[in-house]
Amino acid sequence: MPRKANLDRYPVLKWFAAFARARPFLWSFKVSSCTPAFYAGSFIAFLPLMGVQIILALGAAIFLRANLPILVGLQAISNPFTIPFLYAFYYMVGKRVMSFLGVGLELNPLLGGFHATFLGGAIVGLLVGAVLDLLYRLTIYETRKLALPTRRGKAPAADQPERAGEVIATPVRSAIPDPEAESTKTVSR
């Protein structure tokens, strides 16, 4: 998986390494960068465009200011082993939606099949993107709710509403021994 530090190792991505390093939003895991990555990544992954998905994901990440590792990682959903099953599922979903809406019935079977597969992939991709976005937001919510106190000793306001904003004193252990504490110890022989 490409990371900001090892972009130079990948054959195609090394051409974009300096460009990608200059844009921190490509590596950010903030909600504002991850939400478009989930939607665009799953949308592209579920379209019948095998072979150009990673290039489209790179373009979408730059255009939408989205997280690049999430976008590229989602492209692994459609691989040569899963394509037959996914395309059949896309076709079934797209065909049902087209027959429900009453569109595409006059197209020849080959063109109608392509349209059904494309439409089904788009619908499934957007639904998967919505589910991933929801799970990500719930995970962030639960993580913040269960967060431990910070280094300064501030307790989370949600856990202790009566002490919100109050700094709690925490003992600090020094690495330097206290000479007075040493003198109070008794030595037995």
What would your notes on this structure say?
Helix 2 packs parallel to helix 4, helix 2 (31-45) runs antiparallel to helix 6 and helix 5 packs across helix 6. Helix content is 53%, strand content 0%. The model has no long low-confidence stretch (mean pLDDT 79). It has one domain. The protein is mainly alpha-helical.
Question: Briefly, what is this?
Answer:
This protein is mostly helical and 189 residues long. It has helices spanning 17-21, 31-45, 53-64, 68-74, 83-101, 109-145, 179-183.
Question: Which key phrases capture this entry?
Answer:
189 residues, mainly alpha, 53% helix, globular, 0% strand, single chain
Write the layout of secondary structure elements.
Elements: H1 17-21, H2 31-45, H3 53-64, H4 68-74, H5 83-101, H6 109-145, H7 179-183
Helix pairs in contact: 2-3, 2-4, 2-6, 5-6
Order of helices and strands: HHHHHHH
Instruction: Give the biggest sheet.
Output: none
Low-confidence stretches: none
Count of helix runs = 7
Terminal-residue CA separation: 63 Å
Total beta strand runs = 0
Tell me the radius of gyration: 27 Å
Strand content: under 5%
Structural class: mainly alpha
